[in-house]
Structures are given as C-alpha cells and as structure tokens.
Amino acid sequence: MSTAVPHRFAIGIESADIDFMGHVNNASYLKWVQAAVLDHWRALAPAEIAARHLWVALKHEITYRKPAFLEDDVIATVLLEKVHGARAFYDTVIRRGEEVLAEVKSSWCCLDASTMRPARLAQDVIEHFFPRPDPHTGS
C-alpha cells in the first residue's frame, strides 16, 4: 500500500474556544480533530460511499505543545496511518505556522449508516486514501 496524502484543514478559533486563562481550552482540540478527520473522509471518499458510512471516535491521545489564541491562524494536518477492518488510525498535527501546537493520535470506527453497526471498507474505497505512485512519473 502507498503512503497516505496529508489533508489540510483550516481551523476557525471562536471566542467560545477561549478559556479562563485566555487561550484555547483543551476540549476544543477534540472538536477540531473530529472536524478535520470527517472533512478528510468527505474530501476523499466517493460521495455515495461517504453517504452510507459514519465515523465514531474510539480513542484520542493528545499531546499539547503550545497554547493557541483567538487571533491565531491554525491548520490541522490529518494523515491516515492505516485502515484495519472497520477501524481507521489517524495522526493529526495542529500548527500555527511552523509551530506545533498539538499532536493527536486517534482511532475511529466506521459504521454502516443504516444499521449503525461496524462496517469494513472495501479495498477500492481504501485506495482513495492511499494513492499509488504513477509508474511513469514516480509520483
């Protein structure tokens, strides 16, 4: 399998994200990671497949590096590490410019939208997230 392509997601910091210490509350990072991962899914999955599947978070492990503030321009870069059965494993890095604000490892479960039961993704769907290099150009 090829390497996943990073997905960039712009984060809008709102006044509700700011805590009593004047920086972004830690809980907001979870909201951002969820939005970024779901945006990644919608951007790369075929529309008919995206409509038939839902994602629920199973686990988040967050390492906070630096605080974020209301006026910051923040980007989350999502990288799908692997898909195993109905589970997907992601790395998300949240940055302000070149500064890493937080690093998040998360696992997600794919659900069939009609039955709400775990659903494995077909290999041809997974391949949308791990593009193969062009043999003619090597990229």
Automatic annotation (TrEMBL):
Q: Which domain of life is it from?
A: Bacteria
The keyword Hydrolase is annotated on this UniProt entry: yes
Pfam families, per this entry? 4HBT_2
Keywords per UniProt: Hydrolase
Membrane-spanning segments: none
For this chain, one GO molecular function annotation is: fatty acyl-CoA hydrolase activity
Q: Which family does it belong to?
A: Belongs to the 4-hydroxybenzoyl-CoA thioesterase family.
The name this protein goes by in its record: Thioesterase
Organism annotation: Sphingomonas endophytica
Its organism's taxonomic lineage begins at:
Bacteria, Pseudomonadati, Pseudomonadota, Alphaproteobacteria, Sphingomonadales
